[in-house]
Amino acid sequence: MAKDKTKRRKTPKERRKSALKVILIIVLVIGVLAGALAVTNVVSNSSNAAFINNNIKKVEYEHQLEPTLDDKGRYTFVTDEDFKVLQITDVHIGGGVMSTGKDTMALNAVSAMITAEKPDLVIVTGDVAYPVPYQAGTFNNKESAKLFAEMMEYLGVYWCLAFGNHDTELYSYFNREQIAEMYQDKDKYPHCLLQSGPEEVDGVGNYVVNVKNTKGKITQSLFVFDSHSYVDGDYFGIKWKYDCVHKNQIEWYKNTVKELTDENGGVQPKSLAFFHIPMQEMRDAFKEYTDAGNKDTNDVKYKYGVIAEGGQIVCCGKYNYGLFDAFTQNGTQGVFFGHDHLNNISLNYKGVQLTYGYSIDYLAYGSAISKFGRQRGCTVITVKPDGSFDNAQENYYQDKYVSVQEKESVDLEHDMAEETGGVENPFAAEE
User: Fold this and answer.
1) Could you tell me the pLDDT band of residue 236, with boundaries at 50, 70 and 90?
2) Would you say residue 63 has pLDDT above 90?
3) What's the DSSP call for residue 6?
4) Fewest beta carbons less than 10 Å away: which of 104, 129, 183, 311?
């Protein structure tokens, strides 16, 4: 008698058990991979923590200014001399196993420039962290922030920051409030002057640091804003729909200027502003400058630098709520931002100096950017006792910046715009 080769169909109960087994196996594999990645990331960050502990030394000042808190809770420095601010931007510490070496390079570069410049205050205009998993190997943005904060504490330099879009991505483990809380732990990071700012104002990190003379007059107010991340459903920034400073932040700024003016005997203090995502007026100024054949106009005066992003892009906020107009009416002389790593131009537009800071990034623009150096450095801002200021860009690969680890070999002439593929300006249709 022939054997019946007909395959017996599984019962619904058996199919459920098989499906459950598959799900359990998938969960187990994901768990094992996640655990292995977590362990390797701990090893990675331990390596950079050891680099900081063994190599970063306290900056030697002849006389270091120490801030105090005024009766409104604002940090204040007192001096009758020049006040030096060092702008650092887009450090992009990955904080994972895939970015260990480049994270060391970034820490090495920042520490070398701070040690040489001996600033009174460092202001980071966003993107300390870059926890993008396919480049960093982690979603944990706190580890990146922690490495940077610990380095700054070893340097013993006062510093603060504006949050950038990458500091707290949608997929990151920690949000702005949580990262700000970590930075503001005075037991661990007494040199960090970040303040979360008023709860009723959009964003985290809207605050002001004042510089006064010994007569008690404010010579400069340094405003820091949260320019947020993305808008209009572009949750991951892949459509380049960037946010900006919001209306109630502008109202906070204007009200704060009014308060400071009253405290200053009716004299409106001069000020500088710092945030991450450029304002639309940077794009407008650059367009007017190029339309004039790269020559000054009545409204635009060139100071230094280039727009080197592919397609000469200025990736500014998609909306404009009148921040620039508020600046022109309330004593703000200069604005400093980051975000576009290859742009480092400084243009005076209608009396306000608009400046891209030199970036640090070894990671975010892919492997190519670590091999090139014309875009990497810092911005030195010198505030004068009369409230005026000057700014200058300083490339990292100068001999005056002596790093604890040997500097990487880079091409200082290569045009990195080629590496961005000459992307068309995403805002062209809106202009």
Assistant:
1) confident
2) yes
3) P
4) 311
